[in-house]
Each structure stands twice: as C-alpha cells, then as structure tokens.
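#struct-pred
JK: can someone run the complex with zinc ion? inputs below
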Amino acid sequence: MTEGADLYRLQDLDSEGDKRRQRLVEVDAALGESEALRQARQSLERVGERVRKWMAKQRALELEVQDLADKISREEERLYSGAIRNPKELEDIQAEVSALKRRRQELESDLLEVMIEREDAEAAQGDAQKRLDEVRASWTVGQADLMGEREELQGKLAEIGQMRAGLLSRIDAGDLAIYEGLRRRKGRVAVVELRDGTCGGCGVAVSPSLEWQLRQGQLTTCSNCERILVRL
Ligand SMILES: [Zn+2]
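RT: done, structure tokens with the ligand placed:
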C-alpha cells in the first residue's frame, strides 16, 4: 500500500528536479560564444580588413613612385650623357623630367596620406584586439563558472534520480500513475497537506469520512480538487 508521505516526498524530489532541469537548460543556452564576444571579434575582423586595404594601397603607390624614380634617372642620364646635342630634343627631355618629377611629388603626397590612414587603422586594430582580449577573458571566467554549475546540476539530478528510484519501489504503480496525472493537470502540485481539516491545495474543508479514511492510512484524495491528501 502506498503511503501518502512517500508521494509527498516524491513530489518534493520531482519539484527539485524540475527546478534544476530548468536551470540546466538556461546554463546550456548561456554556454558558447556570447553576443559581446561575437561583436568584439567581428569589429576586429572589420578593422583588420581596413588595415589590409591601406597596406595594399601603400604598396601600390610605393611601386609607382619607384617606377617614376627609375624613369627620371634614365631620362636624366640621357640628358647629361652628352650624346644628345639637338637643343630641341634636350629641351623636350628636360620638360619630360620636370613632368615626371611633378607626378612623383603628387604620388608622394598621396603616399603620405595613405600611410597616415594605415597608422590610424593599425591603432584601431590594436584597440579592437585589446577589447576582444578583455571580453574573452571575462567570457572565459563566465564559461568556467557555467561549466562548474552544469556539472553540479548534473550531479544533483543524478542524486535526485537515485532517491526517486528508491522511493518508487515503495509506491504502487497505479498510485504513481494517479500522481503523475495530477501533477500534469494541477500545476505540478499533486500531493497536499491536510491542515486543520482543510485541503492544503484548494482550502475546502475535508469531510469527516475522508479524514477518517486518511487516519486509517488509506490513500485519500480531496473531493473538491482531487489532489492527494497527506497528514504529515
Ligand atoms: Zn482540495
């Protein structure tokens, strides 16, 4: 015969299990990359792209400046070699050298701007890396805490499971089915205490005959809310 007190204890265990399982779902959801970490990583990626873009531009300009410098020295060599004597031709070469030098000056000024942009981007990259390191450090601590809590919850749930199994050996299968059904239908509360002659679930007075039945140790349910009554 099932003791009401055993069902009451079972309900305690089940409520505790429910609470811990719910927390486990929350912990599992919080494990993994956080939004803050994802954002910090993405902004580092974005600023890294900026740095790469300016580096490529700088490299292209440097090559172009180098090309011009080569061209200028070739033209100047021709100019001063003494091989060309025609004044018109010499004048043309002189004009070309001047044009090339002006172009080189423009490019060098562009290059300076690009180098400044690159430095700015690199500074931003340093800041973004620092921010990511900070976010990751606190995330790592949080993850360790969550992993610890997860382990604790699983241990406690295993313990509850064992206690539950031990208790079930003393509970009749039919009564267990009644209990499970009531818990589903009655807001997880299937077993209530009889207090001062009234049902602890719905507050309605219990008839003397039911109270007598309960005193006899029989499994008794409230005639109003149908919950299992126990005297503790
Ligand atoms: Zn009741």
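RT: quick notes.
The chain is about 75% helix and 5% strand.
The chain has a mean pLDDT of 95.
JK: thanks, will look after standup
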